[in-house]
Amino acid sequence: MHFLKRPVNYALGVDVITISKDLFIKESPFELYDEIKEKGYIIDILVNDAGQGQYGEFAETDIYRELDIIQLNICSLVVLTKLFLKEMLQRGTGKILNLSSIASKAPGPLQSVYHGTKAFVQSFIEAVRNEVKDTGVTLTVLLPGATDTDFFNKAEMQESKIVAEGKLDDPVKVAKDGYEALMRGDDMVVSGFKNKMNVAMSNMMTDEMAAENMHKKQAPVNKEK
Asked: How far apart are CA 192 and CA 144, in angstroms?
């Protein structure tokens, strides 16, 4: 872990301060908050976008890797949200954007833990948003679909149909959708028409049907389900 201060002269005259932490480690989000406080920075907008997954059948995947994913996707997000939210409430202003996923809307065979973590994020943020309504602080959840990032390499799911045969979404467009929803103070945004349709269809299915549909989408291209 290290701290790096690196001024960057963009056209807008913005300086970028980088603090590097391993959020798989339980203490890291607390340390990150403490370092920011020590430096005297005030956080007006918090974006929780760190997240990873693991591909494969749950009975065969690495439980220690999955516990790390739960720590990253859930525990670190909860800690950072709580610590910075309390400051924002004291000031009566602030915005928080949390990365969920359309995975939060359906059970995810072959990515069961990842889908479960995103379902938690979705429910958690909607609940906290309700608690702080009319305070001047807003919480927004961004639900992208399969997006062209390094996520699939880290999850080792390059052979899944959703990656090998599908068209991945543009991360710039996804980020823009999230930013605009955040600035409007929306509670939730699903990025992309295709993903909006997938969420709508999942809402009309039973959990069993939605799980079977997702299993087919995420199955390896060389294996029939």
From this structure: 8
Domains in the chain, number: 2
Instruction: Summarize pLDDT for 26-67 with one digit per residue, the tens.
Output: 999 999 999 999 999 999 999 999 889 999 999 999 999 999
**Do 4 and 83 belong together in one domain?**
no
Which residue, 77, 25, 26, is CA-closest to 51? Answer: 77
What CATH number does the domain containing 86 carry? 3.40.50.720
Residues marked active site are found at 114
Taking Cα atoms as reference points, which of 118, 121, 218 lies closest to residue 164? 218
Start-to-end C-alpha separation, the chain: 43
pTM for the model = 0.86
DSSP states of 22-77 as a string? -TTSTTHHHHHHHHHHHHT---SEEEE-------S-TTTS-HHHHHHHHIIIIIIH
Cβ atoms of residues 96 and 139 within 8 Å: yes
For residue 31, being part of any structural domain is answered with yes
